[in-house]
Amino acid sequence: MKTILVTGGPVHAYLDAVKIITNRFKGGLMSDLAEDLLEFDTRIVYLCAPGGMSKTPRKHERIEVVYHDGFGDYRQKVAELAPKMDAVILGAAVANLIPAAKIDGKFPSHNYKPGDVIPINFTIAPRVIDEVKRVAPLTHLFGFKLLSGVTNEELIRAAYGVVIDSRATAVFANDALDLQQKYAVTKERGVHPLTQEELASWIWTMINDVYYSTVVDSGPPPSNEAVRRFHELVQNYSCFFKPNEVGLIFGTVAVRHESGFVTGGRGKNELASLSNVTWVDHQGRKVHVTGSVKASLNAPLLSRMFDNPLVEYVVHYHCQYPGIPTVDYAPPGTVRDSERRNGTSFNIKDHGCILLFDKEGRRL
Description:
Layout: E1 2-7, E2 10-11, E3 13-14, E4 20-21, H1 28-36, E5 42-48, E6 63-67, H2 71-81, E7 87-90, E8 93-94, E9 97-99, E10 122-124, H3 132-135, E11 140-147, H4 152-166, E12 170-175, E13 178-186, E14 191-195, H5 199-207, E15 213-217, H6 224-236, E16 252-257, E17 260-264, E18 274-281, E19 286-290, H7 299-306, E20 313-317, E21 326-327, H8 335-338, E22 346-348, E23 352-357
Parallel strand pairs: 1-5, 1-7, 2-8, 5-6, 7-11, 11-12, 15-19, 21-22
Antiparallel strand pairs: 3-4, 9-10, 12-13, 13-14, 16-17, 16-20, 17-18, 18-19, 20-23, 22-23
């Protein structure tokens, strides 16, 4: 069973002892999401404001409702609960424009007359999603980014910024003009259109993914020819390996050699370094490398491609290639991603392409 923290509804900030700053959202869609997640083997902790401020999920033995008392308490409770969770889904509507200092007691309105202008300093509240991984580094983290009336590119760009800053598994971008349509933006800047009804299933699949780990072995370096071919392919496909808006370069190439394959190293620019993969233990979920450079997260998938004896090298970049089959998305580095056919080149939906080539350079 997976334990999941879901937050919803408004998160208010206190102006004084009785007045609050809040927003109009009641959390209906997040309450629905919490209920939808009950279709799977889950236990839900639902964090929201008390009373009539928030909609809460229906009573259920696998849902526990926890209440917060405004931004400070919300922030603290998320930090306390997150380490106990398999996944954290932050969907509460935070009043992130909060008073710089709470007024002690009640604001003395009797000292003013109607029409008086009262200067009150506001500040942008700390972003709670950025704090989750500090206390719960292994939990799956999902957030939401809401804008209104902007272009799709601006919406995706804003959501991706949150993904990078918070190290979230995904952030769901949506426009206030159409709350039923979501776009799941992932770490590699994949953009996956989803309806509200598809969210729970998509999240459930993501938090059940199994990832490979790296084992560093001793051994000889790859052949000079394999290294030369790697750099040649990087140069030949350089037009597809460009920095995105936050300076990250995604994609890799891989070249077979007599004792494994070489591919790009893991990092912000996967092609700036080279990793030597000697073998991939698919049963034990281990990627074995020599040297100090971890391989691209795509290494398990690349290993499967080289199980086909006709494949001499592989090129992966984040564009769709016309006229080849398309398979469903799975995060790179997962068992689900490695379980692909290796007979022909293919696209990964909303992600990119895997191009297979033989010794003569012909695309398979």
